[in-house]
Amino acid sequence: MIISYSGPVSAWWKVAVSALLALGIVVAVFWVGGEDRREAIRVEETRVVVTNLGESDWSDVEIWLNDWYRAQAPRVTAGQRLDVPFSAFMAGYGRAYEPGRQPPFGIEVTARGADGGAIRLTWGQGRRR
User: Fold this and answer.
1) Edge to edge, what strands does the sheet with 58-65 contain?
2) Which residues, including other chains, have CB under 8 Å from residue 68's CB and lie 6 or more apart?
3) Band (120; pLDDT cuts 50, 70, 90)
4) Closest by alpha carbon to 76, among 60, 98, 64?
5) 69: buried, middle or exposed (CB in 10 Å: 19+, 13-18, 0-12)?
6) Cα(7)–Cα(64) distance, rounded to whole angstroms?
7) CATH topology (fold) of 41-124
8) Contact status, residue 41 vs residue 98, Cβ threshold 8 Å
9) Given a cut of 50, is residue 126 above it in pLDDT?
């Protein structure tokens, strides 16, 4: 014989379970969202974004795009984000990068750290030498 009770305890139980599930979802979202998901090199629709994720400044920064096109920055401080529009990338003899003719396939960032050591970051294929 099975006895079923559908009074106030059953309704309370449904509310408690729903509240616990909602709390679990909120905790999971904050847990995952709390991670540092920044990328050192990111390619966006019209620009390249380079972020210094280290704890020391960079100097003599060069950003190479698709082996031929280069942009430069004298310094990127620790935690700083450098936005480089595609129009800033130039090849030898002043030829500008045209993303419509050749989409980005490789980026290499080189710089000097505060201690004088070499820094090299790549995205995609990097730079072929």
Assistant:
1) 69-76, 58-65, 106-113, 118-124
2) 91, 92
3) very high
4) 60
5) buried
6) 70
7) Immunoglobulin-like (2.60.40)
8) no
9) yes
Which residue is it, tokens 């280290």? 54
Q: Which of 78, 84, 73 is nearest to 107 (CA)?
A: 84
Q: Answer yes or no: are the C-beta atoms of 62 and 120 closer than 8 Å.
A: no
C-alpha to C-alpha distance for 54 and 113, rounded to whole angstroms: 9
Residue with tokens 């190479």, as numbered in its chain: 64
What is the number of residues in the chain? 129
Please give the distance of CA 74 from its chain centroid, rounded to a whole number. Answer: 22
65's tokens: 């795009």
Pairwise pLDDT comparison (72 vs 4), residue with the higher score: 72
The tokens for 61 are 């920064």
Query: What are the tokens at 125?
Result: 């294929």
